[in-house]
Amino acid sequence: MDNHDEGRAVPAPRRAPTQRLTRAHVVDTALTILAGVGLPDLTMRAIGTELGVQQSALYHHFENKQALLGAVADEIIARGPRTVSPPGGWQDQARQQCCDVRDAVTAYPDGADLVMSMWAFGMGGHAPFVGLCDLLVEAGLTHKVAPTAARTLLHFVYGHAYDEQSHDHAARSGITFGERAPTDFDTGVNIVLAGINALL
Length: 200
Fold this sequence. Notes:
Blueprint: H1 23-37, H2 44-51, H3 55-58, H4 65-78, H5 90-105, H6 111-120, H7 127-139, H8 146-172, H9 184-197
Helix pairs in contact: 1-2, 1-4, 4-6, 5-7, 5-8, 5-9, 6-8, 7-8, 8-9
């Protein structure tokens, strides 16, 4: 044991690795931990312990924790619902995409915070932005305006989901807030879509 390990306990791995470690195994384990304890306790040490490996083994697959969290954000989106595009115009399709993103990030504790942060840092969670940009260009927005419109939509979606999850955390701690209208999310999306429609 080197000097850095002296004076502190190193937790024993929960299980010995039974197969070769891959990026997919690491991301899947990270999602399991996120689902169980939330983002604050999603540490490299916790992931290594769960996989039965030293933390250093994780860095063969991810340069740093932020890179890993970016991959986790991508996987949260990938595991979310993929609703068939509803019949109708671009607004119906955009509305459904927003609902799918919200459902994806709220499926995990702190999912909105994680995905929103990684997207803002340019490290993950890009797929919803790309999908909305493509849809808005098809609807008639210019390539210059469509990214701003897509970001505005996603800022609302992630912000609302983050607010929702924050309220859930507070409620579990015994802090209560006023009830929200069940249609709050839909109304907000419709307001943003109406603004985008005015640009067409």
